[in-house]
Each structure stands twice: as structure tokens, then as C-alpha cells.
Write a structure and sequence with these properties.
The structure holds 3 protein chains of 3 kinds. By secondary structure, chain A is α+β, with helices and mostly antiparallel strands. Chain A has 2 domains: 82 residues, Arc Repressor Mutant, subunit A (Orthogonal Bundle), CATH 1.10.10.1590; 80 residues, 3-Layer(aba) Sandwich (Glutaredoxin), CATH 3.40.30. Helices cover 35% and strands 10% of the residues of chain A. Chain A contains 7 helices and 4 strands. Chain A has a 4-stranded mixed β-sheet with strand order 2-1-3-4, with helices on one face. Chain B is an alpha/beta fold. Chain B contains 19 helices and 11 strands. In chain B, the strands form 3 sheets. In chain B, strands 6-5-11-8-9 form a 5-stranded mixed β-sheet. Chain B has a 4-stranded parallel β-sheet with strand order 3-2-1-4, sandwiched between helices. In chain B, strand 2, helix 7 and strand 3 form a beta-alpha-beta unit. Chain C has 13 helices and 26 strands. An 8-stranded mixed β-sheet of chain C has the order 15-14-23-22-21-16-17-20. Chain C has a 5-stranded mixed β-sheet with strand order 2-1-5-3-4, with helices on both faces. In chain C, strands 6-7-10 form a 3-stranded antiparallel β-sheet. The N and C termini of chain C lie far apart (55 Å). In chain C, helix 7 packs across helix 11 and helix 8 packs across helix 12. Classes of the chains: A alpha+beta, B alpha/beta, C alpha+beta. At the A-B interface, helix 2 and helix 5 of A face strand 3, strand 5, strand 11, helix 14 and helix 15 of B. The complex binds flavin mononucleotide, iron/sulfur cluster (2 copies) and FE2/S2 (inorganic) cluster (2 copies). One iron/sulfur cluster binds next to helix 15 and helix 17 of chain B. The site of one FE2/S2 (inorganic) cluster (FES) has 13 residues of chain C, from loops.
Chain lengths: 189, 441, 529
């Protein structure tokens, strides 16, 4: 068990209560090329056979986009809307509901640290601080100057017995303590 | 078993027997351990007979509400000419809960089998397993198990050669606690925002895609093959007293505890022995201060209350809380309750779907007041305001997320009022190092 | 809902019977009890999200959302009991914690349901001491701006666009207290019926750009009216201040427009305030038209018409009453009556069958037909040498100069009645100025044959008089002994003379209207060619 939490709360934090900032001009993804061609189109067609409505393939389709492009830009939402017979506004309403779809480009390594109470009492905030320090990301949600890391706090990852769980892209690390962070980050650099 | 800890002799490992054993993950390995025998047997039975058997076993929903599973299944009217659906709730996002994760990581075929039996019992040809997006490994394991099951003809248009069609699909969520609420899950599955729906209509009348639907938690469904294999009487007998709570239950134990992990015990187990003997008690040099025994949405217990509790649905209620999802959060005496309750409030504020006024505004307002108190900026009237907001948030909204945010605040102020008042009077958190030093001096 | 089965409930001590399946909120209306509500709107699917309508039901542990709960036999429902009132007060407080409280600069002020209910039973103070959420004002396109800080997220606007307009361009974005109404960049509220979101919004979050900062709602006079823009006949309220119409809004009528009004109609009211109006009767003196008194002018008009067949070109947006008087003029003199209908693109509101911005952009096409007028594209054709030409409120826009000149040359005399004086009308022998539809009372017959009243909203300029009165005087001058000049009397005479309108009276029409008899044959104009 790591050191007790309950010390001063972690430095500046992008609070969960803050709205995601709006896309800047350079984040408009102006040279967007369609995702749903060839193999990806086939994959979607197969997914469509699983549900009685086209709309039900919306979350899976958005996952495909994120896998391909690393984030879900507005042109991507428009493409998904067109492919599934929805309006872009509808798709955007859905995208913004779910926290896992990136509405902005993120660093090569997207680091999510659980800080909800069960992990919090085990020192999760120290882990967050360690990641910020090691990656050089100035703040939660900001990408490090080298473009490699984005660190955020997330809510319970459903692995509370393995405090503190950390997700780096699709990699799920268990029982991360602050002192393990340098070697974790080092291995990624 | 107490995965990742070693199994404790006082556990009764039915569902968790193969946790930690990679061989159990494969179809061959699973079959060697008796897998899919129950499915084979049920496909030869009348669906009504399966429902009856589950009813008799006394199995109750493990997702939080504890509704009798057989009764829920019996709401699905056979032969109504409509497609029926089974949804397996694998959204497991309730802070403190991580049992479904281990079930899917280690015994994915158990869930495939449970889904197939459940689907057949309620007259459904399709089951969707809705797994939260953050569960990368469970998603992988389940996808692979489903693939294997199709390849071997266990699933598909002619399941196990029975001539009956059973499809199981894995559906990946995308980050929203509220999608664990059953009607929100259905909306999410349909490609909508995960907004809970007003009931009625109930899912058994109009659920996912507007069709009759049953929704069950992972742990509920994986218990079913065991009931089929060993009989309802066997399951019912796993009970240390109260006949309304039967079988084994997986508890996820986390927080300030020596041996965090998943422990499976029979209904009616004494909580005190569970906490100290199985889980090893608090970390060295500390004492338990508070226990949240059923995931973050149930009332906080003082350790005295917890020690007097019997672990079953009625036992937790008798001691002022609920069994909930079985996520046991241990908090020791080095922790600031105000800080942790504030953090829980923030969780609910982050997760509110935003439909209901009291929840959308109340969760955020509660969070702001709690964080202000924690930062030493609280005022004398804040506690009354918090309680009043909590009252406005309770029993007035579409789903109970709003109530869940109020629960730790109300029980926290009730049971740890001195900590709140210390923050307000001292204008600082008494648990911060400066104070600790002052105490030591 | 099974037809016929009635449920008895008691609401605030009043026993009522309502059909099975009725919501508590609607049942309360029957009992004469208003249950405060925000997200509920009878024209939209139920959402049940604002939680304002919580009521206490005896023998029930929890308060029930009245909009989303059907009544059950024998229920006793309390709206003003302590638990219900406290719950509403809680909702109101929550709705206001992040609200900018900027009523003094908000267009909705005075007609805002947040203001009204807070005034009625809200807390006197706020216990909120934290920072308020802020989101910038956004142009939603069309006629609509969004002020998110005032939004209560009732989702009426989203449901209207999705379920009624079938054009889901609005969404709820984000979740928790970050949630706002959003749209997709580049996709605006340009649907022809999108402007309805402004009325549907119970607060000042969606505002009309056209009305922005134009008037305080309590300074407005409101009159029941009918949209004159097309043959649909949507019920409206004309709102005016200081004799100027500043806004036209839908007035609910289940049978015609439900709660809605199209954007084109809604914004097409400025002509009612035209400043280039003719304020005095004019008669020809030498080469020019000169002002004259009404007696003199009516006599001059009668003199110009007397002994001639008359060719009447009437606007199909004139009231049934005016058209009826004109038909009597034709009947006395012999001749013909024609009209032309301006066309525009048809724009249905998909979610309401039968409701559409109609291609025929005139209010009373059906009325004109039923009263014997003939629809034509060439209204001046058939004007015979020696006939008198009577043009009634028709600017003959689009007619080419040559045909107008030819017509003027052909006609033995030209009489113009109308609101303005187009250049060709300078050739008239007499010009009689009449009121526009906002300045008089009357009826239109819509595309489905529904006869609907509209009331006067403002005063006519100068000496302009309602058309039915001016034509009544003309008929008297032409020797008619039984002339009516009060609109209800004119209408009664119309109903007596024209079988499809048989039995109708102003009192009977009320403000909802009645449909003409489908069987009865319309009368032909007495001397129609
Ligand atoms: C806010 C909220 C979150 C919930 N999250 C979960 C969850 O993550 N997993 C789950 O199985 N049930 C969850 N539930 C309970 C479900 O609504 C539902 O009762 C359960 O899935 C039914 O399955 P069972 O009868 O097998 O327990 C949640 C309920 C609420 C109100
Ligand atoms: S209580 Fe909260 S989470 Fe539940 S439906 Fe209402 S707003 Fe959504
Ligand atoms: S803008 Fe108005 S109608 Fe739309 S959700 Fe907000 S308050 Fe409701
Ligand atoms: S609280 Fe961190 S994983 Fe559950
Ligand atoms: S009016 Fe009933 S919940 Fe909004």
C-alpha cells in the first residue's frame, strides 16, 4: 500500500466540471479523408448486421474512426452521420456525451489516471503529479511540448483493487505507485 | 477467490474458482472445467422450466438492486411475436467495484454460457454484452471467447446443434458511468446519448429497440450455469441464515486495506470477519474509520456499524446501508472524510447525464460546496445547505444517480460531522501535513 | 388509450373524469388546476426531465412527475401540498444557481415561465455562493440566437427539431452541468419552421433576432389574428406597440396549426406597418387625383360604375366580408370577379400532418372561390370594351405596362380600392382607401374550408376605412336598400346568401373557427360570364 493520500490536493487540475474547450482553427481537420472505405467499410457493414437499426452502430463506428485517426474531428462526425443516415448535429450530441472519444488531437501517449475515492485514498493524486512531472505536460489535459504525452485524471476505471490503475492508450497498468512512474514513462520515451 | 490474493479458506469459490488461471480462458480449457454442459442441458429444456429453476434458487440481481432474477425473467412473455433481447450489463463503473472485470478476464466463456442460457430462457435470439470502453482486456477476452464459441457452433443459428438460434455480440461503451443504469444502457446500445428513460414502460415491455428486453449483471448471469448444473436446492443452501439472500457473492475490496481483491463468500457471512480475516484488516499502523460496503452509492458505515453487519441484502439494510454492487471501499483513519466525499460528489457531477434539473445542477453544486469546505472556506450554514440540496436530489429524478450523490453527503455529515466542522472552524483541512505536525508537536 | 374508458381522479379536491391514459398534468387542466411545468409541451413528445411538475399522490411514497404519469382510478393528487411545493422550490433554486439573473435586459422578461414561477413560489434569496457557469451567446442561424446562460435544458427545442420538424440540427452537447444546447458548425436553424423554437423555449434562451431588443413584452397589445401569408390559415397573435405591429406569434389551434407558425409567415408582418398608405379618398380632377371626402368619393365611384358591367380584380387576401360586398356589387351591375394568387415554395411541417406553408400565398383563396370569384393568371383578360374596372386591394404586381395601359384604355372607368396607390392606379377615376387586415375585423376561409375570425390589432391611418364598410356605402349609393356596414352583420348576410357558410355567425365561430359545409354548392356570381 502506498503512502497515505490526504496531502495537499494535486496542483492545478483541469476539473471535471470544466467544459471541453472549443476546437481551434487548426483543429478543424480540414484535409479529412473518409475513414469508411475498403476494409473499414466492410468492418462497418459487418457490424450493421448485428443490430436491427443503423443508428445502433454509432458507437462502434466512432470507435473505428478513433482507432484510425486518433480522434474524432467534426468532419469525421459528418462522415459517420452520412454513413449511418443521421445528422452531424445528432452525432455530435452523442460524441460529446461519452468521455472516451477525443474531440481534439491528443499526444502519442494518452495517459489516464484514476483518482476517484477508492484510488484516491491509496495515493492516486501522487501518481498524477508524478506523471505530469515525468512527461513534462504542463497541466492536466495539455499535451507535453514534445507532443508525446497527454495526462488526464479519470473517474473509476473499474479496477479499484489494483490502485492506482493507469491506462496508457489501450494498455491497462495496475497498481501503479508514484515511484513506478519514472520507469513507466522512461520505457515509452 | 480473493484475486489477486490467494484464495482464503473461508471463501466459497463458485464463480471465482478459476481466477488467475489462464488455461480457463480458452474454450478447450473451459470445457475441461465443465463448461457449456449447462447450456447443452438447458437447450433441451423448456424455457419456462429454466425460469422456474432460477426462481427457486433465490438468485437475485448482482448489479445493485437485488431484484429476483427468475421473477425478472418471467416478465418476458413467450410467443408474443416480438423479438426479445438480453442485455448483459458489463458497464461496471460503480466506484469500488471490479468483480465483473475479473469474471470477464479469467472466465469469459462462463459469461458467454450465462448469456446463452439467459437468452434462451427469455425467448431471445440475441444477447448484447455491453462492456465499458475502458475495459480493454475484458473486451479482448470476451471478443475472443465469443469468436471461439461461434467457431465451435456453440453460438449462431444452430447453437450446439439444438436448431435454436443464439447470437451473442460484444458492444463497447465509450466512457459513461450512467450507461450502467439499465435504460441508459439500452439508449447507448441504440446509438444514443446514455440518458436513462422514464419508467414505465419497463424494459420487459419496451426495452432496447422498443422490444421486450431483460437486462442482467455479469455476475448474475455467470451464476446461472452453476444453478443449472447443481440444482436450485444446492444454490439455495448457500446461505448462512436469511432465506431471502442465497448463493455466493463476489465482493470487490479496495481502498485502505491490506489485501485488496475479489472475495467470494456465501450470503450471510459476518462482515467483521470478512474485513479482518479475509481481507487482512487495515494497513499496518492504521485503523478502519469508515466502510462503504456496496459501491460508492450506498450509505457510508462507521467501522462500528460495519463490524456488526451480516453480509446479505437484508443484513446491510439492517445496518443502515445496502449491499449494492458489493464494492467494499475501506477508508482508514489517515483519510479526510470531507475530501473523499467531495471526490465522490465530483464523480457524480462528472457522470450526471444532465437530464434532470436536480441532478445536473445539484451534483455540481454539492461538489463545489464540498470542495470549498475541504479547502477551508466553508461556513456554518454550508452543512444545512448541503443537507437541503441532498433532500432536493433524493427521490425526485428519473434515475437514482442523483440520490447516489446525496447518499455519501448525508451519511457523511451524519456520521462524521466533527470532521466537517473541524474544516469550517479551523479554515483548513485538519488532515493536511501541517496539522499532523502540529498534533505531533 | 382505450376509447371510452374514463378514469376518476381528485386533483386539489376537485373530482374529474378523464379518458384512460391521460397524464396527470392534462387531467389537472380539466380540473382547472395548473401544474407548473417546463419541459412538458402538448405539441412535443414527453421528456419528463425538468422535474418541475412533481405532484404528491396519496398512498404513494414518491412524488410523481405529472407530465409523464398517467392517472389511475381513484387517485388523490395534491399540487399545492408542502412536499410538492418544496420540490418545485428546489427545482427553481437549482435552475437559478447558474442563471445570470439578467431579466432587465432579457427579451423574455414578462413572459418567462422561470420568472413567473419564481415570482409565485420561488425562494426569496439564493444560497448559491460559488462561481457561475458561463457560456457565450451563439447565433443558431435562421432567426434564432441562443443565450446558453439562461437555458434550463428542458430540451423542448431539441425535441421540436427532431420529432416535429424531422430535422435534428439541435442537440444536447456534453453532460452534467457542462451540458448545453448545441448544433453542428455550418448547419443552422434554417428549416422553414425552425423559428418555433423561440416560442417553445420557456425562458429567454432562444430569442428571435427579428424581435431582439425591440420591445418589452408588457408594453405589447395582443390581438387574435390569422396569418395572411398562405392558405393554411395558421392562428396568430398580432402584437403591437404604439400602433405598430412588432411581432406575430402562433396562437394554438389544435385543428389548424397546433402551436406552430412557419418562419416566412412569422416574419411577414412588416407590410402591416407600411408608411406609404393612402390616407384619404381621392377623385380625379382633371389630370390628377385629388383628396376628397368619403361621401363625395363614394358617390363618384357609384357614378363611374353605374350602368356598366363591372370587371372586379380582387385580392384573394381580402376578407370574406369584403369579397361578399364586392360580389353584391357585381350582382347589381353584372360582370365578373377574378383573382390571382401569388405562388411560393410549399414547406410542410413533417411532424404535423396537414400543416404546411402552402404554395398559394394568400389568406382567402378558398373564400374567394366559394363566393364566386374565378382564379386566373391573367386577371385583366376578359375586360370588355365599355366595362368598368374595379381593382380591390390588388397591386397587380408583375403585370406588364402594356397590358395595364391597354386595360386602362379598354375600361370605361377605373375604380381602385386599396391601401396604397401603385403608379398605374393614377389613371383611376376614384380611389377609396381601406384598412389592412391588422386594422379591421373579418374572416378568412382556409384551404380546408375553415372559416376563422381575426380581430383588429391597430388603428387604420387617416380616413382609411375597413373594406366591408366602404363597399357597404358603395352598395347603398348604387341603390341597395339592405346594406350592412358592421362586420358581424355583413357575415350574417353572407351566411344567409351562400349555402356553404349556412348557419355560421361570429359568435358561433368564436376564435377557433368552423368548417364550411362540404355538400352545399357555392353560388355562382349572379351575372358571371
Ligand atoms: C446510476 C446507475 C449505475 C448502474 N451501474 C451498473 C453497472 O455498472 N453494472 C450493473 O450491472 N448494474 C448497474 N446498475 C444497475 C442496473 O440498472 C440494473 O439494475 C442491473 O444491471 C440489473 O441487473 P441484475 O438484475 O442482474 O442486477 C446501475 C444502476 C444505476 C442507477
Ligand atoms: S438522475 Fe441524473 S443521471 Fe439520472 S436521469 Fe436524471 S440527470 Fe440523468
Ligand atoms: S434553449 Fe430553451 S427550449 Fe431549448 S433547452 Fe434551453 S430552455 Fe429549453
Ligand atoms: S476508483 Fe480507481 S479504479 Fe475504481
Ligand atoms: S414538465 Fe414534467 S418533468 Fe418537466
Amino acid at each position: 500500500m502506498s503512502a497515505p493520500a490526504g496531502g495537499p490536493s494535486a496542483g492545478p487540475r483541469l476539473t471535471a466540471l470544466d467544459r471541453a474547450p472549443r476546437a481551434d482553427a487548426h483543429e478543424r481537420d480540414e484535409n479529412y479523408q473518409p475513414v469508411f472505405v475498403n476494409a473499414r467499410r466492410k468492418e462497418l457493414d459487418e457490424l450493421l448486421t448485428r443490430y436491427p437499426t443503423k443508428m445502433a452502430a454509432l458507437l462502434p463506428a466512432l470507435w473505428i474512426v478513433q482507432e484510425e485517426r486518433g480522434w474524432v474531428s467534426e468532419p469525421a462526425m459528418a462522415e459517420v452521420a452520412a454513413v449511418l443516415g443521421l445528422t452531424p448535429a445528432y452525432v455530435k450530441g452523442v460524441v460529446t456525451f461519452y468521455t472516451m472519444y477525443h474531440q481534439h488531437p491528443v499526444g502519442k501517449y494518452f495517459v489516464q489516471v484514476c483518482t476517484t475515492s477508492p484510488c484516491n485514498v491509496c495515493g492516486a493524486e501522487d501518481v498524477v503529479r508524478a506523471f505530469l512531472k515525468q512527461t513534462g505536460a504542463s497541466d492536466l489535459g495539455a499535451t507535453s511540448p514534445d507532443g508525446r504525452f497527454t495526462v488526464i485524471e479519470v473517474e473509476c476505471l473499474g479496477a479499484c483493487g489494483f490502485a492506482t490503475p493507469v491506462m496508457i492508450n489501450n494498455e491497462f497498468l495496475e497498481s501503479v505507485s508514484a515511484d513506478r512512474v519514472p520507469s513507466i514513462v522512461g520505457a515509452l520515451k | 477467490m480473493g484475486f489477486p490474493q490467494k484464495s482464503h479458506p473461508r471463501e466459497t469459490t463458485v464463480l471465482s474458482k478459476h481466477f488467475g488461471d489462464p488455461d480457463a480462458r480458452t474454450l478447450a480449457g473451459w470445457r475441461n472445467r465443465g463448461g457449456y454442459r449447462a447450456l447443452e442441458q438447458t437447450l433441451a429444456m423448456e424455457p419456462a422450466a429454466i425460469v422456474q429453476m432460477v426462481k427457486e434458487s433465490g438468485l437475485r440481481g448482482r448489479g445493485g438492486a437485488g431484484f429476483p432474477t427468475g421473477v425478472k425473467w418471467s416478465f418476458m412473455k413467450p410467443g408474443d411475436g416480438k423479438p426479445h433481447y438480453l442485455c448483459c450489463n458489463a458497464d461496471e463503473s460503480e466506484p469500488g467495484t471490479f468483480k465483473d472485470r475479473e469474471i470477464m478476464r479469467w472466465t469469459p466463456h462462463a459469461l458467454v454460457e450465462g448469456c446463452a442460457i439467459g437468452a434462451y430462457a427469455i425467448g431471445a435470439e440475441t444477447a448484447y454484452v455491453y462492456i465499458r470502453g475502458e475495459f480493454t482486456e475484458p473486451l479482448e477476452r470476451m471478443t475472443e471467447a465469443v469468436r471461439e464459441a461461434y467457431a465451435e457452433g456453440i453460438l449462431g443459428r444452430n447453437a450446439l446443434g439444438s436448431g435454436k438460434r443464439i447470437d451473442v455480440y460484444v458492444h463497447k461503451g465509450a466512457g459513461a458511468y450512467i450507461c450502467g443504469e439499465e435504460t441508459a444502457l439500452m439508449n447507448s446500445l441504440e446509438g444514443r446519448r446514455g440518458n436513462p428513460r422514464i419508467k414505465p414502460p419497463f424494459p420487459a415491455t419496451a426495452g432496447v429497440f422498443g422490444q421486450p428486453t431483460t437486462i442482467n449483471n455479469v455476475e448474475t448471469l455467470v451464476a446461472v450455469p452453476h444453478i443449472i448444473n447443481n440444482g436450485a436446492e444446492w444454490y439455495k443452501a448457500m446461505c448462512l441464515g436469511n432465506a431471502k439472500s442465497t448463493g455466493t457473492k463476489l465482493y470487490s475490496v479496495c481502498g485502505n486495506v491490506r489485501r485488496p481483491g475479489n472475495y467470494e463468500v456465501v450470503m450471510g457471512f459476518p462482515f467483521k470477519e470478512f474485513l479482518y480475516d479475509l481481507c487482512g484488516g487495515p494497513p499496518a499502523g492504521r485503523r478502519f474509520k469508515a466502510i462503504i460496503p456496496g459501491g460508492s452509492s450506498v450509505p457510508i458505515q462507521t467501522i462500528a456499524e460495519a463490524e456488526a453487519t451480516v453480509m446479505d441484502y437484508e443484513g446491510f439494510v439492517a445496518c443502515g446501508t445496502m449491499l449494492g454492487s458489493g464494492g467494499v471501499i475501506c477508508i482508514d483513519d489517515a483519510q479526510c472524510m470531507v475530501k473523499q466525499i467531495a471526490r465522490l460528489a465530483r464523480f457524480y457531477a462528472h457522470e450526471s447525464c444532465a437530464q434532470c434539473t436536480q441532478c445536473r445542477e445539484g451534483t455540481a453544486w454539492t461538489t463545489k460546496i464540498m470542495e470549498r469546505i475541504e479547502a477551508g472556506q466553508g461556513t456554518a450554514g454550508d452543512l444545512d445547505t448541503l443537507l437541503d440540496i441532498a433532500d432536493n436530489m433524493t427521490a425526485k429524478t428519473i434515475c437514482v444517480l442523483s440520490d447516489s450523490c446525496a447518499v455519501p453527503v448525508v451519511s457523511g455529515i451524519q456520521k462524521f460531522r466533527d470532521e466537517f466542522e473541524a474544516h469550517i472552524v479551523q479554515h483548513r483541512c485538519p488532515f493536511r501535513p501541517a496539522t499532523a505536525a502540529a498534533v505531533a508537536a | 388509450m382505450t376509447e371510452g374508458k374514463m378514469i376518476s381522479v381528485t386533483i386539489e379536491g376537485r373530482a374529474v373524469q378523464v379518458p384512460e391514459g391521460t397524464s396527470m398534468l392534462e387531467a389537472a387542466k380539466v380540473a382547472g388546476v395548473l401544474i407548473p411545468h417546463y419541459c412538458y409541451h402538448p405539441g412535443l413528445p414527453v421528456a419528463g426531465v425538468c422535474r418541475m411538475c412533481l405532484v404528491e399522490v396519496e398512498k404513494s411514497a414518491k412524488l410523481a412527475p405529472a407530465c409523464a404519469t398517467s392517472v389511475a382510478e381513484g387517485q388523490v393528487i395534491h399540487v399545492h401540498s408542502d412536499p410538492a411545493r418544496v420540490a418545485r422550490q428546489g427545482v427553481l433554486e437549482m435552475l437559478l444557481i447558474n442563471h445570470p439573473l439578467d431579466c432587465p435586459i432579457c427579451d423574455q422578461s414578462g413572459e418567462c415561465e422561470l420568472q413567473d414561477y419564481t415570482f409565485a413560489e420561488g425562494r426569496k434569496d439564493s444560497r448559491y455562493r460559488e462561481a457561475k457557469r458561463f457560456n457565450p451567446v451563439e447565433d443558431f442561424g435562421g432567426d434564432v440566437v441562443y443565450v446558453p446562460n439562461r437555458c434550463i435544458l428542458c430540451t423542448r427545442c431539441v425535441r421540436f427539431m427532431e420529432d416535429v420538424a424531422h430535422d435534428p440540427v439541435l442537440n444536447v452537447s456534453e453532460r452534467g452541468d457542462r451540458a448545453v444546447i448545441g448544433k453542428f458548425e455550418g448547419q443552422d436553424l434554417t428549416h422553414p419552421w425552425a423559428g418555433n423554437v423561440v416560442e417553445l423555449c420557456p425562458v429567454g434562451a432562444l430569442l428571435s433576432k427579428d424581435f431582439l431588443n425591440k420591445a418589452r413584452s408588457w408594453d405589447l397589445d395582443r390581438s387574435a389574428s390569422i396569418c395572411p401569408n398562405c392558405t393554411q390559415g395558421c392562428n396568430t397573435a398580432l402584437e403591437s406597440r404604439d400602433n405598430v405591429v412588432v411581432r406575430m406569434r402562433p396562437r394554438p389551434n389544435e385543428d389548424v396549426n397546433k402551436y406552430f407558425l412557419c418562419d416566412e409567415g412569422r416574419l411577414n408582418y412588416r407590410w402591416l406597418n407600411r408608411r406609404d398608405r393612402v390616407e384619404f379618398p381621392h377623385i380625379r380632377r382633371g389630370d390628377a387625383l385629388a383628396p376628397a371626402g368619403w361621401d363625395e368619393a363614394v358617390e363618384a365611384a357609384a357614378a363611374a360604375l353605374r350602368g356598366r358591367r363591372v370587371h372586379v380584380v380582387a385580392s384573394p387576401s381580402l376578407s370574406n366580408e369584403v369579397l361578399f360586398q364586392l360580389a353584391q356589387v357585381i350582382a347589381r351591375l353584372g360582370g365578373t370577379g377574378v383573382f390571382r394568387v401569388r405562388q411560393g415554395p410549399e414547406a410542410p411541417l413533417d411532424g404535423v400532418p396537414g400543416l404546411s406553408l402552402r404554395a398559394d400565398r394568400a389568406a382567402n383563396v378558398r373564400g374567394a372561390e366559394l363566393l364566386g370569384f374565378r382564379r386566373t393568371e391573367t386577371p385583366l383578360a376578359g375586360l370588355a370594351n365599355g366595362d368598368a374596372l374595379l381593382v380591390a386591394d390588388e397591386e397587380l404586381a408583375g403585370a406588364d405596362a402594356a397590358s395595364l395601359a391597354a386595360a386602362a384604355a379598354t375600361a370605361a372607368a377605373v375604380v381602385v380600392i386599396g391601401t396604397t396607390l401603385p403608379s398605374w392606379a393614377m389613371r383611376a377615376a376614384v380611389m377609396l382607401p381601406i384598412a389592412n387586415m391588422a386594422e379591421e375585423e373579418g374572416t378568412f376561409t382556409n384551404v380546408e374550408g375553415r372559416v376563422q375570425r381575426y380581430l383588429q390589432a391597430k388603428a387604420a391611418p387617416g380616413l382609411a376605412r375597413p373594406g366591408y364598410a366602404a363597399m357597404g356605402d358603395l352598395l347603398t349609393a348604387l341603390g341597395d336598400q339592405t346594406v350592412n356596414v358592421v362586420p358581424s352583420d355583413v357575415f350574417r348576410a353572407l351566411a344567409a346568401a351562400h349555402a356553404p357558410f349556412g348557419g355560421m355567425t361570429y359568435e358561433g365561430l368564436g376564435l377557433r373557427g368552423a368548417t364550411v359545409s362540404a355538400q352545399a354548392q357555392p353560388a355562382a356570381l349572379a351575372a358571371a360570364t
